[in-house]
Specification:
The complex is a heterodimer of chains A (about 500) and B (about 325). Chain A is an alpha/beta fold and about 500 residues long. Chain A is built from 17 helices and 20 strands. Helix content of chain A is about 30%, strand content about 25%. In chain B, a hairpin with a 2-residue loop joins strand 2 and strand 3. The chains are: A alpha/beta (about 500), B mainly alpha (about 325). Chain B: It is found in: Cell membrane.
Amino acid sequence: MTAATAPVLELVGVRKSFGPIEILHGVDFALHAGEVHALIGENGAGKSTIMKILGGFIAPSAGDIRLDGRPASYRSGAEAEAAGVVVIHQEFNLAPDLTVSENIWLGRELGRVFLDHRAMRAGTQALLDELDSAISPEARIRDLPVSDRQMVEIAKALSRKARVLIMDEPSAVLTSREVEVLFRQIERLKAQGVALLYTSHRLEEVTRLADRVTVLRDGAVVRRARRGELTEDGMATAMVGRDLQDIYPARRHHPGEVALEVRGFHVPPLVEDVSFALRRGEVLGISGLVGSGRTELAEGLVGLRPAHGEIRRNGVPVAIGTVREAAAHGMAYLTEDRKERGLLLDKNLRENLTLSTLPRFGTPFLSAAREEAALGKAIADFDIRAPRRDLRVGNLSGGNQQKLLLAKTLLSDPEIVIIDEPTRGIDVGTKSQIYAFIDALAREGRSVIVISSDMPEILGLSDRVLVMRQGRLAGELAGERITETAVVRLVMGTAGDSSGSAAHV
Amino acid sequence: MSDTAIRPAAGPRLPGLSALGPLLALILLVVLGAFLNDNFLSAGNVTNVLARSAFIGMIAVGMTFVITSGGLDLSVGSMAAFIAGVMILAMNALLPAMGVGVPLILAGMVIALAVGLAAGLTNGLLVTRAGIEPFIVTLGTMGIFRSLVTWLADGGTISLDFAVRQLYRPVYYSGLFGVAWPILVFALVAIAGQVAMRHTRFGRYCEAIGSNDKVALYSAVNVERIRLLTYVLLGLLVGLATIMYVPRLGSASGSTGTLWELEAIAAVIIGGTALKGGYGRVWGTVVGVLILSLIDNILNLADLVSPYLNGAIQGVIIVLAVVLQRGKSAA
């Protein structure tokens, strides 16, 4: 297959070893001007390593990097940026205490002796306008939600006049509206002749965007395709190396008694007057845009945020002011932010697993043997894969971190489990495992609330769906009425107005 | 790579070089001391060094928990002086009523612990309830305690009644089986601290909070209470250290316990506890305290370097310890 254009940036026979373990086995990969090339694969397949090599952050053990056909001379991320190769990281490289504008101009500030604040602010505003974003240039990164930070990261990359733009799962934390904006920008950059590398676990995005697709498995390229040559099923099969049956579990039936009833629940300042009931053996999906109050509602229910309203457990009114009180009433919450709120990245698996249930492991002295036994069981039950048990959790892949977090949350044996974004940034194989765990919880008679921005996930898992919009319940769907169109209409607030545009909320 | 099975941890792993570093330094100092002066390893000198380490040592053990959970306490030196002042004044005041005797000494000890507890509680509540940075809170209380003791002493010295002092002296100067009381108490505090850090919920929670307090909060840990407890524990240990310290001189003044806070913090850091919190090593703190005392002792015994340079050498050691710690995290 000969390309119409010569590649801008190319890897030839690249190998990479960390210590004795080779994790890239001779990869060829090329980015062409004016094309989107999607790189897909499960967590740990080597995508991140390839992106780091392309971006100059690590050097290959063998093989060549070629920029415009000549060996690339850059030795660091900064030199790569100077050569026009810009990476948008999944872990943002933004200084949290600086403003949006200060971040965008960091290292290339305008002005001579004194900074030209006005010009930088205007430049930032222009970039944000181009991105159709309402973020203020003066906002501090610390105060911005994750999705806004992603937009700032993209704006920053745009401002660097990239020739090659490498995007590591940019859509993972964006709402569907923001994803549309991102896609428009990608199309625009493409038209300007920028070479783009795009990664995502959402295969429908790959189908829509990618001119070329490269599938990685275990550090080697297993499939290359041009636009239209590979279906989403084909991609998933190539990634996993086996046929994926329907990744969602079969429907359950016959939910039991009402386990949790919430009436007139308020979580200031966002969530207002939410009422719903949750039955035993049921999976209740909560959909809505990022910022619609889903997480705030959940955090209010488990005592992480000040809230008021009525909560009944098995018909009995209860007061919950702290996470421990929630746990005492059999309620557990699994956060959407596993790296900042879920797990201690510096600590090992054992200390993370038992942190929220430590009183069960001995008073006054903790029993290391019992903790180890619990870890052994969690590793087996949840298929957690780590090379060593004393590994720092920060070194685990996202999927294994999520499984560990799930094991940690379920160690308290909760009757009600609230799972916020169960599969964010997780590969297809692990996703289906997590769906099976959630299904098993419901079959055991527990009640599960799944909060998710992933539409297929909501549709595939839920017995009932609640939709939140601007802090209130916009509607409830059950059974046959759970369809993508119905959910999207409620999410966008166009339920009663079929002609209305859903573009601006 | 993804199908790598999990091997069970292969027995207790040897601590890395950075963990052994302070211990090696300590051994080196002992060898150096023995080489430079014949008296260095004599029972008298060893007792002297250990007994003098005991005050800072007890405080440093408490400081280890505060720092591990992401806090800091600059007030401990002033707090010790304040507790000593209040304790002596109270004992002198109770003397006419109680007479010279063991009950009076015990009353003084209870008062010292109570004042320590109250002082620690003040620091802790200001940090947790009022939500003020520990550095600011304890910088403030450092000045307050120091000023209060100077005021109580009216700018001079508060002295314990002579007869009471004679009765109280053995608490510093005597001991059990030839080991001085301060050394025994310090050893007990250190062992209890090490066990608490490694084998109890309290220690685990301190590390979790210092590592990431949001994760701790989301994991049903009572973050505020644990933080408060670390300051209260430290206050109590400062009280305990003062109980052992007062019989040594029998007086307190505005300059009692000056710079103890820095020595305690330095010992904690030299011992390998992370200053930003998240990881604590009590036995390391003990090693740190001993290193600081030994440097002082060796400089006094040997004519190699002027003892006036003690502070400079300690400073170099502290900076070196942090550089070594950084080497560990980069590896």
